[in-house]
Design a protein that fits this description.
- By secondary structure, the protein is an alpha/beta fold.
- The chain is 42% helix and 16% strand.
- It folds into three domains: 56 residues, Electron transport complex subunit B, putative Fe-S cluster (3-methyladenine DNA Glycosylase II, Chain A, domain 3, Orthogonal Bundle); 250 residues, TIM Barrel (Alpha-Beta Barrel), CATH 3.20.20.20; 126 residues, Rossmann fold.
- An eight-stranded parallel sheet has the order 10-9-8-7-6-3-12-11, with helices on one face. It has a five-stranded mixed sheet with strand order 13-15-14-16-17, sandwiched between helices.
- Helix 11 runs parallel beside helix 12, helix 13 crosses helix 18 and helix 15 crosses helix 17.
- The chain is globular.
- The chain binds iron/sulfur cluster (SF4).
Amino acid sequence: MALKGTDVVKKLPELGKKNCKECGFPTCFAFAMKLASGGASLDKCPHLSAEAKAELEDALAPAIKLVTIGTGENALQIGNEEVVYRHEKTFLHPTGVALLISDSEPEVAVAAKIRKISELKFERVGVLLKANLLALRHDSGDRSKFVALVREVCARSDAPVMLMSEDTDALFAAWEVCAERRPLVYPLTKDNVDRFVPKLRERPTPVGVRAGGIEGLVPLTAKLREEKLDDVVLDPGSGSLMDGIRDQTFIRRAAIKQNFRYLGYPTIAFPCLMTKDLLEEALLAAAFIVKYAAIVVLSDFDRHTLLPLLTQRLNIYTDPRMPLSVKEGVYEIGEPDPDSPVLVTSNWALTYFIVSSEVEGSKVPSFLCVKDTEGLGVLTGWAAGKFTGDAVAAFIKKSGIEQKAKTRTLLIPGMVGRIRGDLEEALPEWKIVVGPREASEIPAFLPVFAAKLKQ
Ligand code: SF4
């Protein structure tokens, strides 16, 4: 947020002394504090003048604008970042990975790339990792070919698209074809801005603003802001990794530290233009994901380059204060019947995925009860009071496992064998068995345990 609560209150009616409570807050000051933290909206105060409202709206807007490319469930949201360093808070909207398709590429290569963007998906700790958009570039010099490529891609893929052409007429023709998909249209430059503005008024869509340096971006975004057409993605035209990191860092710092509105937009980087080596391209993209690019455009990728890139993105865009977790509940592994084993563990994503894959590897259909420990592992969860005997017992009672399983034997992680006594007291109808300390021992342990249960 650009303003603090103490600044906001001065803009409220009677310099924040009216205190009529109509907003639902006891004082103007309380309302101002909530506004500044993003917990309330301006329309709750009926006494704000139109002028004060407009001023506050502008001042309270995020330092980097949220821009949405595409529509529906595949839409890509970028921007709205609040910090320069990830340890200060968190990065919010993961970098969009774009796959470039040129209208000069043979049909078979185009078809392969369209397949790639829909097929190369990976699940990691419960999160689906995938590339996000197709960047369609006009290289052929033949407008009809570019439009045909856009048509074909839109017919065969529901991924958001970015349209790229130095020929503004070709760009506008392609834009007509897919306007309802909210494409990112690129580039808007000082030479074509006057043609863009009326077109954007008619068909609002995100636009990639390019200049040969950061200074050149400012007059363009100023003009678009004046026109209230500021779904903007910035391209400072960096030609190398070093220039790119410098430019991206400058833009992020100007937007967040200086609240410089004319650079308060998400950015794009083109590793595809910086090298011809695919592996090096992926490395450049990795650097830009860390250093603030909201979109990276790659000329191509395969499973071996995309997975590490997406994994790195996941790590960078995960809140460092919040461990990854899965939802509390009873998970069925295989097709368990009422006599199948019942295990309990914590909801740290890593714990869940390791334990569930070892149970799956044991080939014993089982119920895995996952207790919410706020993303802490079993031992840390116990130390934090979230995986104690009483807490686990309360969870087992409300989990619904007693309706699913007939057996009343609960297998607890060996790491927290010490909670057995408390659990036996809190769950008198259950027999508590201490399982292996390490998940890797489960495949050997579980078949023997399950056979004993059935005796
Ligand atoms: S409604 Fe407006 S004037 Fe009244 S207390 Fe809330 S902020 Fe103050």
